[in-house]
Amino acid sequence: MLKEVIQKKSIRTNQEKIKNLLGEIKVIYTDVDGTLLGPDGCFFLDTERQYTLKPAQALVAVLERNIDIVMISGRHIRQLRENARVFGFKNYIAEMGTQIVYNLGEEVILNLGDFKKTEESVFKTIEKSGVLDLLRQTYQRKLEDHTPWSSERDCTPLFRGYVDVNEANELLRQKGYENLVLVDNGVIPRKSETLDVPEMHAYHLIPRGVGKESGIKIDRRIRKIPKKAAIAIGDAVADLPFAQEVGAFFMVKNGLVKNSHLAEQILEAENIFVTENEMGLGWAEVVEWITQETETVGI
């Protein structure tokens, strides 16, 4: 099934369809870990841990065409600022869409939906409610703080482990935390001696109705960017809703492999496509195609 999806939904198979979905590309929204970056968060490693310059070459080509690249990630705002400075980006969306940042932090817009902040930060408001202790106690040896990155959050508490998010969110509803939702942000290459889980995922606790895709929606509205002028690239379940807010969404191959249950959904979607390569090479595959089309037909 996976091989069939990759073949039917590849860029190579769908070039004309993708062209018809898009106009002149002004912005590329990209997930970071497992998408833009390779193993261990390295920009220059492929999945075989061989060094490659292809992602860097693709990045330079798209920056030379003045196409804005916006990182959208579960990472916190300070992490993304340093990433952006290295890559030559100006704008990014942090903590699962809750912080929309322009010009390396000169302007930050909070995206919280109906959630009301009562403490010094959104994180402190959530922490004081007792919901974090509820999750830790309910899912002992299944869920824990994603240290050290969980200690520097402004908006969204960060966990690692392996839980049924539907079950967890039903628990939150029953306990009176219906304004929050636990979101799976994908598989991570992390081990923990204190957990007993078959694989490790990163989870964010975010205000209900908020997500990476809502961050894109607000950014497009602020900057008056039409859907046809935007694409997105990602690797996780939390990235799939990007498709609602852009002309075309591309899932790097490793995202489909790790989320095989999404195969049918991807196959049926009109504007979701899958790369033939994984992680940074898959990212480069998309960006190279965009820059080539910009040169040849001026989309």
Provide a brief overview of the structure.
With 299 residues, this protein is α/β, with parallel strands linked by helices. The protein is built from eleven helices and twelve strands. It is globular, with a radius of gyration of 19 Å.
Write the layout of secondary structure elements.
Layout: H1 2-8, H2 15-21, E1 27-30, H3 54-64, E2 68-72, H4 77-87, E3 92-94, E4 99-102, E5 107-110, H5 122-128, H6 131-138, E6 143-145, E7 158-161, H7 165-174, E8 180-187, E9 201-207, H8 212-223, E10 230-234, E11 248-251, H9 253-258, H10 263-268, E12 272-274, H11 279-296
Parallel strand pairs: 1-2, 1-10, 2-3, 10-11, 11-12
Antiparallel strand pairs: 3-4, 4-5, 6-7, 7-9, 8-9
Provide the residue-averaged pLDDT: 94
What does the largest sheet look like? 8 strands, mixed
The share of residues in extended strands comes to 15-25%
Question: Which runs of at least 5 residues are low in confidence (pLDDT < 50)?
Answer: none
Global outline: globular
**N- to C-terminal separation?**
32 Å
Strand order of the largest sheet: 5-4-3-2-1-10-11-12
Structural class per helix/strand content? alpha/beta
Rg estimate, integer Å: 19 Å
From N to C, what is the helix and strand string?
A: HHEHEHEEEHHEEHEEHEEHHEH
Helix content range: 25-40%
Strand tally, please? 12
Q: Number of helical segments?
A: 11
Structure description:
The protein starts with a helix and ends with a helix. The mean pLDDT is 94. With 299 residues, the protein is α/β, with parallel strands linked by helices. It has an 8-stranded mixed beta sheet, with helices on both faces. The chain is globular. It is 34% helix and 18% strand. Helix 3 (54-64) packs parallel to helix 11. The protein has 11 helices and 12 strands.
